[in-house]
């Protein structure tokens, strides 16, 4: 589904990604772990099309289509979703109106008619319930004055509404208490099926207790230095990242 | 003949039509003298540094419309708040239109200035308020005073809560090649009374128009006045709006100015405090493009203790549009415990767009809280990326962000129908259909 080949990227002439190779198939959950500054968030931003990063080398394929020149919205329309580490506040635009606009823009881009209002309403209710969101929450201005947990929950709510092919969760566990973490993870697990995939980007193993990955990759200094199964995450939790560094130098 | 000379000559013609023995005549004569001495303002004057009237003054404006013009209601329905019942005072080319108006004398007076100025029963109010707060030194205000005859007269008695908004609309038909009008409004709001007013100037075709409007508002003790100015005129229309507001203790007056249209628009908005615990709000949204020009020139004169003023102006400039914000806060020595706040945020989208922003704080009291903030910027890139990531294309994302940028002002519109109308106007100005009422 998603293939990344030899990806090199930089921001303001600083090389951040130095040859990433990754393949994610439908139905899989992958996790990328790594110390701060390894390039984890850069990778997720680049997959989503953030124009602040320059891809100097390499390719990104989604279902066989090379997408590295596509605008962020074109990638979104093809099924890429990024749950932001720091979701942006948009005063004056409610959660409901924002998601309506997002859904209908995607439908328009894919040659579909706008979703009928009653269908939209039903969907919003259903997904809000899944994320245990209060009805009042939906009429609030997007992310304005939301707590860290509310922001993340709102991200997963949008993900649930948009039903992406591949969802990238960038540090979704940061700022979440244990209840919010459970709700968010539960939401992701319910949305997961054999036709979509999830890429979890995280510093800590905690979230992976709830969203269990099929594969774990360790990103260090712009490269994937080790890949393994869920057991690798536990090992990292126990030993930290230094032993891999040592492994590397050996 | 230059426009100034034409105005002076026209005043003599005007005198033929009015009662020159009335007390008002002295007022008018003094006013025309002041205008004669000062003439139209030029860029040499500090207050007009960034706004030149030269290009407009070249037009050969008629001062009196040649004939009485009429308009079919259906043609202009969209300019009214037609979803709700309102009082209406409507003028066509400066002349009152009884057909389009819905005036009243039932518990409050919403009627025309020409009758208030001439009928004995209004004499006391006219003597007490007319031309009392308007700036007698200002040449354009004087020009208006000289020709003052028609406009809206609103008198709300003590404790009256006016349920329906009052709409004051000036239409220009464009039947004249070029027309200059001098609307004059007087609004007196009694103790504990509450009123909402919507004012609009609208041309119906592209013949040049110059409107030099003067509005005086008097808010008595604990009165609440919400005044909305909708400026979405065609791009050949010019407006100089001179509004003077006097507030007595504990009154609350808010003026919202929505500037989306016109060629040159100058808003002179002046607040004078005459009591304690007064609250004044001045808010504005300006969204213009092409070569449009909007100049907000505000003054809040804090003369009494324990008063508050809040200013918040948002400007979005496209193409080669130019904007000016000059906000003056004057705190007199007696005005201790003043809380004055001023904010002016500008976004330049057009490569050739410019803004001149100038906060002016003159503070003579020592125990006050005054703050001002002015920003000039582009759209937040991280917010753009966020919205695009959710599938919202660049153009729509931009519009949504700009809408968000203006929301601090739109949020405080108290008439829901007007709020929806302004949201639609903003969406139209930003060139998008968001698929929902923003």
Overview of the structural elements:
With 250 residues, chain A is an alpha/beta fold. Helix content of chain A is 36%, strand content 28%. In chain A, the strands form three sheets. A six-stranded mixed sheet of chain A has the order 6-9-10-3-11-12, sandwiched between helices. In chain A, 42% of the residues are buried. The mean pLDDT of chain A is 90. Chain B has 438 residues and is α/β, with parallel strands linked by helices. Chain B has two domains: 3-275, no CATH class; 384-438, no CATH class. Helix content of chain B is 23%, strand content 37%. Chain B has helices at residues 3-17, 23-38, 54-57, 73-76, 113-118, 123-129, 139-146, 381-389, 394-410, 416-429, and strands at residues 87-92, 95-96, 109-112, 152-156, 166-172, 179-181, 184-189, 194-203, 209-219, 224-231, 237-248, 252-259, 264-274, 279-288, 293-302, 308-317, 322-331, 339-348, 354-363, 369-377. Chain B has a ten-stranded mixed sheet, covered by helices on one side. In chain B, strands 3, 4, 6, 7, 9, 11, 13, 15, 17 and 19 form a ten-stranded mixed sheet that branches. In chain B, 50% of the residues are buried. The model of chain B has no long low-confidence stretch (mean pLDDT 94). The interface between A and B is medium-sized, with 36 and 29 residues.
Number of domains of chain B: 2
CATH fold-type name of chain A: Rossmann fold
Strand content of chain B: 35-45%
Biggest sheet statistics of chain B: 10 strands, mixed
> Mind summarizing the main beta sheet of chain A?
6 strands, mixed
Strand line-up of the largest beta sheet of chain A: 6-9-10-3-11-12
List keywords for this structure.
heterodimer, A: 250 residues, alpha/beta, Rossmann fold, 6-stranded mixed sheet, 4-stranded antiparallel sheet, globular, B: 438 residues, 10-stranded mixed sheet
Topology:
The complex is a heterodimer of chains A (250) and B (438).
Chain A: E1 2-11, E2 14-24, E3 29-33, H1 40-48, E4 54-62, E5 65-66, H2 72-77, E6 80-83, E7 90-94, H3 95-109, H4 117-130, E8 141-142, H5 148-162, E9 166-170, H6 178-191, E10 197-202, E11 215-220, E12 223-228, H7 230-239, H8 242-249
Helix pairs in contact in A: 3-5, 5-6
Chain B: H1 3-17, H2 23-38, H3 54-57, H4 73-76, E1 87-92, E2 95-96, E3 109-112, H5 113-118, H6 123-129, H7 139-146, E4 152-156, E5 166-172, E6 179-181, E7 184-189, E8 194-203, E9 209-219, E10 224-231, E11 237-248, E12 252-259, E13 264-274, E14 279-288, E15 293-302, E16 308-317, E17 322-331, E18 339-348, E19 354-363, E20 369-377, H8 381-389, H9 394-410, H10 416-429
Parallel strand pairs in B: 1-5, 4-7, 5-8, 6-9, 7-9, 8-10, 9-11, 10-12, 11-13, 12-14, 13-15, 14-16, 15-17, 16-18, 17-19, 18-20
Antiparallel strand pairs in B: 1-2, 3-4
């Amino acid at each position: 589904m998603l293939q990344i080949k030899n990806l090199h990227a930089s921001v303001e002439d600083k090389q951040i990604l130095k040859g990433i190779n990754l393949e994610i198939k439908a139905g899989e959950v992958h996790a990328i772990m790594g110390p701060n500054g390894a390039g984890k968030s850069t990778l997720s931003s680049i997959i989503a099309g953030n124009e602040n990063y320059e891809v100097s080398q390499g390719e990104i394929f989604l279902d066989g289509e090379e997408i590295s020149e596509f605008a962020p919205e074109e990638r979104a329309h093809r099924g890429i979703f990024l749950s932001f580490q720091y979701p942006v506040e948009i005063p004056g635009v409610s959660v409901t109106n924002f998601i309506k606009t997002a859904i209908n823009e995607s439908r328009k881009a894919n040659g579909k008619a706008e979703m009928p209002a009653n269908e939209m309403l039903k969907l919003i209710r259903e997904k809000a319930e899944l994320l245990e969101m209060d009805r009042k929450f939906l009429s609030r201005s997007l992310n304005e004055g939301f707590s860290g947990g509310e922001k993340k929950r709102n991200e997963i709510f949008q993900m649930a509404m948009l039903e992406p092919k591949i969802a990238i969760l960038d540090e979704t566990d940061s700022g979440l208490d244990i209840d919010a973490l459970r709700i968010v993870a539960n939401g992701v697990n319910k949305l997961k099926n054999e036709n979509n995939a999830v890429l979890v980007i995280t510093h800590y193993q905690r979230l992976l207790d709830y969203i269990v990955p099929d594969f774990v990759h360790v990103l260090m200094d712009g490269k994937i230095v080790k890949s393994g199964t869920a057991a690798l995450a536990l090992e990292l939790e126990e030993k930290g990242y230094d032993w891999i560094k040592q492994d590397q130098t050996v | 003949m230059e426009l100034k000379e034409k105005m002076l000559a026209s005043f003599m013609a005007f005198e033929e039509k009015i009662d020159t023995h009335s007390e008002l005549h002295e007022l008018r004569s003094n006013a025309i003298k002041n205008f004669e001495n000062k003439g139209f303002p030029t860029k040499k004057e500090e207050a007009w540094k960034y706004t030149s009237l030269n290009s407009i003054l070249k037009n050969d404006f008629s001062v009196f419309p040649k004939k009485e013009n009429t308009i079919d209601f259906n043609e202009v329905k969209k300019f009214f708040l037609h979803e709700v019942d309102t009082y209406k005072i409507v003028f066509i080319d400066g002349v009152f239109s009884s057909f389009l108006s819905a005036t009243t004398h039932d518990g409050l007076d919403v009627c025309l200035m020409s009758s208030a100025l001439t009928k004995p029963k209004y004499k006391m109010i006219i003597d007490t308020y007319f031309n009392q707060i308007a700036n007698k030194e200002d040449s354009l205000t004087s020009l208006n005073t000289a020709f003052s005859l028609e406009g809206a007269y609103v008198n709300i008695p003590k404790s009256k809560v006016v349920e329906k908004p009052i709409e004051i609309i000036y239409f220009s038909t464009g039947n004249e090649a070029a027309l200059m009008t001098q609307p004059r409004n007087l609004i007196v709001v009694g103790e504990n009374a509450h009123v909402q007013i919507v004012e609009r100037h609208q041309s119906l075709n592209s013949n040049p128009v110059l409107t030099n409007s003067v509005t005086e508002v008097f808010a008595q003790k604990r009165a609440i006045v919400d005044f909305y100015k909708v400026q979405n005129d065609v791009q050949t229309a010019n407006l100089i709006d001179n509004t003077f507001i006097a507030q007595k203790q504990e009154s609350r007056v808010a003026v919202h100015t929505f500037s989306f249209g016109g060629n040159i628009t100058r808003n002179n908005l002046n607040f004078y405090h005459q009591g304690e615990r007064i609250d004044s709000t001045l808010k504005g949204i300006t969204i213009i493009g092409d070569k449009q020009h909007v100049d907000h020139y505000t003054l809040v004169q804090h003369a009494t203790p324990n008063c508050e003023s809040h200013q918040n102006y948002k400007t979005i400039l496209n193409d080669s549009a130019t904007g000016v914000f000059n906000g003056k806060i004057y705190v007199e020595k007696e005005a201790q415990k003043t809380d004055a706040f001023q904010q002016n945020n500008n976004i330049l989208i057009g490569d050739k767009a410019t803004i001149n922003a100038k906060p002016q704080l003159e503070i003579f009291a020592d125990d006050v809280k005054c703050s001002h903030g002015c920003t000039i910027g582009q759209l937040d890139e991280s917010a753009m990326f966020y919205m695009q990531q959710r599938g919202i294309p660049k153009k729509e994302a931009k519009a949504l962000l700009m809408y968000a940028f203006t929301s601090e002002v739109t949020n405080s519109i108290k008439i829901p129908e007007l709020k929806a109308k302004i949201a639609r106007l903003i969406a139209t100005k930003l060139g998008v259909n968001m698929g929902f009422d923003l």
